[in-house]
Specification:
Helices cover about 40% and strands about 15% of the residues. It is α/β, with parallel strands linked by helices and about 375 residues long. The strands form 2 sheets. Strands 2-1-3-12-11-4-5-10-8-9 form a 10-stranded mixed sheet, with helices on both faces. Strands 6-7 form a two-stranded antiparallel ribbon. A hairpin with a 4-residue loop joins strand 6 and strand 7. The longest helix has 18 residues. The site of 3-isopropylmalic acid has 6 residues, from helix 4.
């Protein structure tokens, strides 16, 4: 597998280093050949190459099977307009790679249950997958801009039936490997794009009679996520709603640092943790690398088609948590371990389970 690695900004390089440590360890045991090339994106790319997505980075995507990204975002560029900020590098890259379905799983780890802001009896058993449309809606719709001497501004939410149908298919296919339920989220009581969304999703649903479909307005969905998160299996939604709901779903698990994502459907798959660059803790070996490490697991699952190797990483994460190891964001007392220590531990467990010990003895 050829992987372009983009550590990016803030804590990105630290968590990506740990993701690669674990990925390389597991690859070795499972005889997966991995070739990595590093490149710049975001604020560090502006600083070193004058652009948030330099040409050399785009060239590095050539022939790659997947991109592994750390984080993008740098407060040094907060004064810039949206089209010049570090984040535009990420958005342009998403367009270039072509993946339109962003999968963001969020589930209750038994051993972390008390880190959730929700009461145990509400959160226990939560296991949901947000399928976020990633290349349409307000993020990319035109026209957009400022007018009247910057006294007003506008963006365009635009969707075609083809754009909705293709991401809906990913949601229904994913549901088949899970609990066979899709909740489509929109604002069809107000927005035309949401009417189209709802009709297109319902049309696709006809091809999946074995999967249950329900529709929710986005405000109601935000509410159900905190009052009844176990009602969800697959949540299918448009770009901006998915951005907002996935932060909400992620933090239910105790920390945004835990969540991974995969973007599929395009030429090159993209894997990135859901969290941002966390500039306040960057360079301090404090960040939680689990989101990045779990993204590497998704890479093995979706691009590598190696479920066994993916599970080796995921059970190593579960084991580290079950044994009480915590980075600062999920620690309940002063007993926390560093980014590096967590990465090393998970790498060791991933190897232990798959190399010398049978799984039954590893715990
Ligand atoms: C995410 C992030 C990005 C997004 C930003 C950094 C552009 O918040 O991946 O959720 O809005 O998609
Ligand atoms: Mn986001």
């Amino acid at each position: 597998m050829k992987i372009t690695v983009l550590p990016g900004d803030g804590v990105g390089p630290e968590v990506t280093r740990e993701a690669l440590r674990v990925l390389n360890a597991v690859a070795l045991v499972h005889s997966i050949e991995i070739e990595t090339t590093g490149a710049l994106i975001g604020g560090c790319a502006i600083r070193e190459a004058g652009s948030p997505l330099p040409e050399e980075t785009v060239a590095a995507f050539e022939g790659a099977d997947a991109v592994l990204l750390g984080a993008v975002g740098d407060p040094a560029y907060d004064h810039l307009l949206p089209d010049q900020r570090p984040e535009i590098g990420l958005l342009k890259m998403r367009q270039h790679l072509g993946g339109f379905a962003n999968l963001r799983p969020s589930k209750a780890y038994g051993s972390l249950i008390d880190s959730s802001p929700l009461r145990r009896e509400i959160f226990e058993g939560t296991d949901l997958l947000i399928v976020r449309e990633l290349l349409g809606g307000l993020y990319f719709g035109t026209p957009r801009g400022f007018e009247d001497g910057n006294s007003s501004a506008f963006n365009t939410m635009r969707y075609s039936t083809a754009e909705v149908e293709r991401v809906a298919r990913v949601a229904f296919e994913s549901a088949r490997g899970r609990r066979r339920k899709v909740t489509s989220v929109d604002k069809a009581n107000v927005l035309e794009t949401s009417r189209l969304w709802r009709e297109s999703v319902s049309k696709v649903a006809a091809d999946y009679p074995d999967v249950e479909l329900d529709h929710l307005f986005v405000d109601a969905c935000a509410m159900h996520l905190v009052t009844n998160p176990t009602r969800f299996d697959v949540v299918l939604t448009e770009n901006l709603f998915g951005d907002i709901l996935s932060d909400e779903a992620a933090v239910l698990t105790g920390s945004l640092g835990m969540l991974a994502s995969a973007t599929i459907g395009g030429k090159i798959d993209l894997f990135e943790p859901v969290h941002g660059s966390a500039p306040d803790i960057a360079g301090k070996d404090l960040a939680n690398p689990i989101g990045a490490i779990a993204s590497a697991a998704m890479l093995l699952r979706y691009t590598g088609k190696n479920e066994e190797a993916a599970l080796a990483i995921e059970s190593a994460i579960e084991r580290a948590l079950a044994e009480g190891y915590r980075t600062a964001d999920i620690a309940r007392d002063d007993n926390s371990i560093s980014t590096t220590a967590m990465g090393e531990l998970i790498a060791r467990y991933a190897l232990g389970k798959t190399a010398s010990q049978p799984a039954s003895q590893a715990n």
